[in-house]
Amino acid sequence: MTDSSTVDAAWEHFQHGADIGIRGIGATPAAAFSMAGLALTAVITRPETVQPRQSLTLACQAPDLDFLFLDWINALVYAMATEGLLFARYEVAIDNGRLQATAWGEPVDRTRHQPAVEVKGATLTALEVRQLADGRWLAQCVVDV
């Protein structure tokens, strides 16, 4: 899916055995991480059903972009599980191995959101953050469902 605010940003899923891959694409690593957050939400429910009613601040630190992405996705999974939230929008900033983000969403409403699966965590499988030939950034991994 593409982000309506820019044609350079997108998220998608890719198949991997019994699990599912999430992928974000954006003009910067931060934009790709944000779009991957939407792909994570889309594993569970249709993102357009989630309202950005409350915010949660998240922070991660890692020695490189690959592990920063892994930590980011796991931080989102943890927040979803412990806070009972789904997220509709993400604002991510990355500087020198540090990620600061705000995620907006709402508590899970089983009737409205109809969650399909529970994501258990991000894995090292297909973990990759890199710049594409067209200059955009890709961030992806497989999540355990």
Textual characterization of the structure:
It is globular, with a radius of gyration of 14 Å. With 145 residues, it is of the alpha+beta class. 27% of the residues lie in helices and 40% in strands. The strands form two sheets. Strands 1, 2, 6, 7 and 8 form a five-stranded antiparallel beta sheet that branches. A three-stranded antiparallel beta sheet has the order 3-5-4. The protein has helices at residues 29-44, 65-83, 110-113, and strands at 10-16, 19-26, 54-61, 85-95, 98-107, 121-122, 128-131, 137-144. The model has no long low-confidence stretch (mean pLDDT 93). The longest helix has 19 residues, at 65-83. Helix 1 runs parallel beside helix 2 (65-83). The chain has three helices and eight strands, in the order E-E-H-E-H-E-E-H-E-E-E.
Q: How would you classify the helix and strand content by structural class?
A: alpha+beta
Strand fraction? 35-45%
Bulk shape: globular
Give the termini distance in whole angstroms: 21 Å
Mean of residue pLDDT? Answer: 93
What is the quaternary state of this protein? Answer: single chain
Give a short account of the largest sheet: 5 strands, antiparallel
Helix content: 25-40%
N-to-C SSE string, H for helix and E for strand: EEHEHEEHEEE
Record field, number of beta strands: 8
Radius of gyration: 14 Å
- In DSSP terms (H or I, runs of 4 or more residues), the helix count works out at 3
Low-confidence region ranges: none
